[in-house]
Amino acid sequence: MKEHRVTVDNKPHIIKLAKIEKKTPFSVEIDGKTCQIELLNELKTSKPFLVKVNGRVYKVELDEFKENSSFFVRVNNKPYKVRYEIAKFSPATTRVREPTLPLPRKQPLSKPVPGMENAVTAPMPGIVVSLKVKVGDHVTLGQPVCILEAMKMENEITASKAGVVKEIHVQEGSGVSQGQPIITIE
Known about the structure:
Elements: E1 2-8, E2 11-17, E3 26-30, E4 33-39, E5 49-53, E6 56-62, E7 70-75, E8 78-84, E9 88-89, E10 105-106, E11 119-121, E12 126-131, E13 138-139, E14 144-150, E15 153-158, E16 163-168, E17 175-176, E18 181-185
């Protein structure tokens, strides 16, 4: 897995990816958060190309660039000043995430557990990859609240009802068992 250091409008970012695949979704880690990327046509400098990120399509235009020098990237016609540093390999301890195909699927709404009717529970054992809400957020029925990795698949866990997030029972990286409360909605 290669680690790339990129500065966008003077803000540093670390991007980790194993290999860029054309017309096949692949996973990229940006500042520790994983996203699905798919190049919809050939990546060329000075010509627009399309990139799908987590299911959303962007038009990208890329100036000629060299490592360790600044250049401009336009995303949906908005310019960003970018500086790319030489890529290096991450330590062998870095976990490589294989692309998830199909793209993350929605899990059925969690089932109420007696005594925990207001809790969104884990429908299966897994690892909490990311939380999509925080305490005080208003959520709607079916809204994604977290991403749960189980059997090398990332699964979107959704709200079982509309309301306000009152409590979060897990954190990113936590292991959960089936039926374990993830958040409480009131």
